[in-house]
Amino acid sequence: MTGPAHRAEIPSGAGVRPSVSGSRAEIVVDLAAVRHNVRILKDLVTVDGPVQLMVVVKADGYGHGMVEVAGAARDAGADWLGVATLDEALALRASGDSGPLLCWLSAPGDDFAAAVAAGIEVTAYTVAELDEIAAVGPARVQLKVDTGLSRGGAPHAEWATLFAAAAAHEAAGRIRVTGLWSHLAASDEPAHPANEQQEAAFREALALAAESGLDPDVTHLANSAAAILRPSSHFDLVRCGIASYGLDPAPGVSPRLGLRPAMTVRARLVMSKAIAAGDGVSYGHTWHAAEDTTVGLVPVGYGEGVPRAAGNTASVWVDDSRRPIRGRVCMDQLVIDLYGELPPPGTEVVLFGPGNLGEPTAQDWAEAVGTISYEIVTRIGGRFVRRHVDSEETTR
Ligand SMILES: *Cc1c(COP(=O)(O)O)cnc(C)c1O
Questions:
Q1: What CATH class has 31-245?
Q2: Among residues 26, 74, 78, 371, which one has the fewest Cβ atoms lying within 10 Å of its Cβ?
Q3: How do the residues of the chain divide into helix, strand and coil, expressed in percent and rounded to 5?
Q4: Per-10-residue mean pLDDT for the chain, 396 residues long?
């Protein structure tokens, strides 16, 4: 799947350019890296027993392409796929995926009948949702309990009621409760007391569910950080999103696992030119050259999801060295410092990539703009053309 069909023209007035191969600006996703990461995660969690791996591909595979990532994840041994919305789950089915698939964020008006017909497992937080699902059953349903995140899921006071309703529907043959699960608030901080508290609360929910006559196939609590850092949270299954894409869910805390970032974001230089000491760069002149230098124009901006906050903070990679962004990031373009060099139009500019050549990573960008790598990779898009490659196919 390519990115959005709409692509901007390179701004005019940039002088004569040599013919440029490749896109103006593209997101390249290496599916071999996804497979590599999925294998590492699967090996990690199955060391002590038969824990299943769910690869989370919501939000268009964290910006990497849901359908392509899903295929790579299945190839590498993912037991399950997980998405947030029913529409995402239906899109996966439409693409041909037929394996175990869970979605967990239904909204009023969602078509549970379509999900059930497509063999998608849905999640219920409330008795009302459960009744709606049972009405279009027989359905495979997982129950989500809130153990302390205070986001989705049944609050503690409603567990018994939810479980009783589920058991009644199950006895009547309208549903099968296939799973019971929850989600952690601070798994990227292993010493945070919420981890211990939530795990204890989850065990309490499991006991109560058993007392209510439920016998779910899978119980699960862990996301990527907990899969990596907290074996006691693994239960039957772990739900790994960010780590499947090769990014570290807990930077500075996780052990080195050899994960490989799958996404590279690159563009081609439109022009380079000299500016004089004292010249201001980009809107508002938030940066002035301290000495004579050269700058390059990169044809991507916040219209493509490049954070505006990256102005004067993040760097890109040109000709084997890091070049800082100078001044504000604009809607369609940004300016970088080339330190006196004048690379020709068409020169490759890597915004971020796996980092193995020294180029910035999504994690570097996240730190530069005060966010997490999840947001960097998930928001990048817009006029970038996305392309999938398979480095194992080309190098073997
Ligand atoms: C997004 C999500 C995950 C994946 O989290 P990562 O930190 O990316 O591994 C797991 N479970 C739920 C419920 C989620 O919403």
A1: alpha beta
A2: 371
A3: 35, 25, 45
A4: 38 39 86 98 94 98 98 98 98 98 95 97 98 96 98 98 98 98 98 98 98 98 98 98 98 94 98 98 98 98 98 97 98 98 97 97 98 98 96 67
